[in-house]
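We now fix the convention by which a protein and its fold are recorded. The integers have meaning only within a learned vocabulary of local backbone shapes. A complete example follows; check for yourself that the lines match position by position.
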Amino acid sequence: MAESLLLRSVTALVLAGGTLAALPVAANAAPIAAGASPAAAAPCPADRPLTEVRLSTVPVVPGARIVVAGTPVTTDGAGLATLTVCRLASARDITGPSTPIQLEGHRRAVFDRVFLRGRGRVVQVAFGMEHEVSFAFSGLPTRQIESFTLRSSTGEIITRRDLAAVYLPGSRVLRGPDGLEQREIYYSVEAVSVAGSSVINRSQIRFYPSEREVVRVPLLAFDVRVEVVDRLFRNPVGSHVRLVRAGELDLDKALDDGRAVFTEVPRGQYRVVADAPGLRIDRTLILSSDQVVVMPVLTWLDLGVLAGVPLAIAVGLVLAPRPHLRRRLIGLVRPVRATGRPADPEGVQPA
């Protein structure tokens, strides 16, 4: 009986040891199952297995943060990155940075579009490059410039009233016969507005933002010399002269000996108005180069002379065939005698 009791005790100990040994195994098995459950929660579809994706930027843009199927990745110094995601279905699964990426050399990269190749295994992210460009205007004070207009080779029209430096798109990526290629964009200066009129020749100045950081724009401004003279005797007259353009620009100068010089006058059509005694006559001036304008003015003296000459001719025509009227007229204009009476026109002395 003692032997039977001993056998039961040993059996109980063995069973208890087996149960205790099994506890760590069960405890270790639980985390494995728990760790596997997240992966099973969002598996890749059967038609879109896990795939290694090679990403590159065109042109090279280091440090660009791209989100591929919800997974963010940042490009290296060569504009490259590699990641593993479910096979991409379309370019809509990829988003680029929403703000420009500042680069060295006064450049910045702006996300444009995405191209897929190799059944979603190769991703090419296209960026447009913008370059900082400033404009140096000469020929007129910059405070007179109201705005300037640019036209790009892509047809974009840009009008700016701020003369500070601006970032302009300098290139864009297009699909060519040999793959993606970067094409440069050029611009032309269409207009520079001063007092409501353009003071440049349209499209004469062209530039590539990638090649020129400063664009020099000479403005069409000229000198005008005005001379105001008496029409008949050519003597200098007048006190002031004005250049007026459509109520937008009114330049006034005092005359010095009938002369005045206007400098840096914007190109355009003007009225020249002289302030002088007599009949004021305006003159139209189309300014496209340095010019000398002579303004003849009919002064009151000119008008008196012009009125007196026909009158003298008319009197002469009346008196020429009538000698007796001539003698009477001559007698009227003779000096008065000491008696205070005019001489007898017939020359007969009183008795």
Observations:
- The helical segments are 2-41, 300-319, 323-333.
- The mean pLDDT is 81.
- Residues 2-41 form the longest helix (40 residues).
- The radius of gyration is 49 Å.
